[in-house]
Write a structure and sequence with these properties.
Dihydrofolate Reductase, subunit A, single chain, 22% helix
């Protein structure tokens, strides 16, 4: 199982304003590259808070694209995913998985959603358990797209293999929402460490690519 973390941030590492506004921090060229990244991953993963805030489709939308769509995966410990969201409404056409710590329910399964129950860690879906369940379901490469606490949980568990970071030339300040939430770190030496592989200009934005050190 390979895990890629995709970030789309301001220069100061924020993914949204304090009010939650996030569309669009990066420009159209960067967003097109994100769609290409989705196309080469078997699954795209987000937390339920991202679904509630943004109602994303998490599909590949490129001109002329006819390849398979990645599976859409939502980490949702308490099954809060709205039944009217795009992911649930299109689950009968595009594979959609909810990973939870709760028992499944008919409103999701009847809509075509696959529900995977895993163990909890501090009240949330355990990231290692989620990856194990996805691997057992046939997912070999996943890209994490949000939000900050999901990114923190996978980084804190040392489960991220690569980072695709798109940085826009704007500054949102301290009250903006961070790309990576809090996770325990007792010493600098214990911090997840990556090596920069490349930097590309994509429109007005920068695309930095990192791999494990």
């Amino acid at each position: 199982m390979s895990v890629t973390l995709k970030l789309a941030t301001s220069l100061d590492g924020r993914i949204a304003t304090a009010s939650g506004e996030s569309r669009w921090i990066t420009g159209p060229a960067a967003r097109e590259e994100v769609h290409r990244l989705r196309a080469i991953h078997m699954a795209v993963l987000v937390g339920v808070d991202t679904v509630i805030a943004d109602d994303p489709e998490l599909t590949v939308r490129l001109p002329g694209y006819v390849g398979p769509q990645p599976r859409r995966v939502v980490l949702d410990s308490r099954l809060r995913i709205p039944p009217a969201c795009k992911l649930v409404e299109t689950a009968d056409r595009i594979p959609t998985i909810v990973v939870t710590t709760k028992d499944s329910n008919d409103r999701l399964t009847d809509a075509g959603v696959t529900v995977l129950q895993v163990e909890a860690s501090d009240g949330r879906v355990d990231p290692a358990a989620a990856l194990a369940a996805l691997e057992a379901a046939g997912v070999g490469a996943v890209m994490i797209e949000g939000g900050g606490q999901v990114a923190a949980s996978f980084l804190g568990a040392d489960l991220v293999d690569a980072v695709e970071w798109f940085r826009a030339p704007i500054v949102l300040g301290d009250e903006g929402r961070p790309a990576v939430g809090a996770f325990p770190l007792k010493a600098l030496a214990a911090a997840p460490r990556f090596r920069r592989l490349s930097i590309h200009e994509v429109g007005d934005d920068l695309w930095e690519r990192y791999g494990r050190s």
